Amino acid sequence: MHYAPAYLLMLLTGVYILSAVDNNDNTNMQHAVYQAAEQSNSQLCRLLTGGGDINARDEDSATALITATEKGKFNTVCNLIAAGADVNLKDSHGESALMKAATKDYAQIVEALLSAGADCRAVDTDGKNALDKAIENHSDDSLLLLYRQMQNGNQIHPHAHSWHGERQ
């Protein structure tokens, strides 16, 4: 018997999702949410309707949104945001998806996260915010977006830098 690839994907993903839900295994659930979001928003919606947790965490407390951001997966990030992922959750290092995007200069993702309400003032366990990370990593496009966001909100974090990279 021959199955279409989309049908096989649905079958395989469905088994994985059901296993994660049945075992209440957050790490597997996080991976299932990530995989579903990477495939399509409709598949992600089916997963969530079936009892999936959009904000499930893996062994490092990373959510699917944080993982997608680290990998630079813009469409996956957008699918997760549209499905209601919390843009301000942090991993075990205190880093949010916005901080990860700023570190790697994924400007499109930075913009999507900011539009979804990501807190640009939030700090990690070292007391650094997304703007600090953009400056440290020479992430110029992300730096500009974050700087404008902080200026528009009149909320400059105490660790924020001047435009030339010097501490204020």
Describe the 3D structure.
The chain is an all-alpha fold. It has helices at residues 5-23, 26-39, 41-49, 64-70, 74-82, 97-104, 107-115, 130-136, 140-152. It folds into two domains: 1-86, Serine Threonine Protein Phosphatase 5, Tetratricopeptide repeat (Alpha Horseshoe); 92-168, Ankyrin repeat-containing domain (Serine Threonine Protein Phosphatase 5, Tetratricopeptide repeat, Alpha Horseshoe). The chain is 57% helix and 0% strand. α4 runs parallel beside α6 (97-104) and α6 (97-104) runs parallel beside α8. The protein is globular. The termini are far apart.
Task: Map the helices and strands.
Layout: H1 5-23, H2 26-39, H3 41-49, H4 64-70, H5 74-82, H6 97-104, H7 107-115, H8 130-136, H9 140-152
Helix pairs in contact: 1-2, 2-3, 2-4, 2-5, 4-5, 4-6, 5-7, 6-7, 6-8, 7-9, 8-9
Top-tier CATH class of the largest domain: Mainly Alpha
What is the H-and-E element order?
A: HHHHHHHHH
Strand content: under 5%
Average pLDDT for all residues: 77
Helix content: 55-70%
Count of discrete alpha- or pi-helical segments spanning 4 or more residues:
9
- What overall form do the CA principal axes indicate? globular
* Head-to-tail CA distance between termini: 68 Å
Question: How many structural domains can be distinguished in the coordinates?
Answer: 2
Radius of gyration: 18 Å
- Examine the coordinates and then state which fold CATH places here, giving the name of the CATH topology of the largest domain: Serine Threonine Protein Phosphatase 5, Tetratricopeptide repeat
Number of distinct beta strands: 0
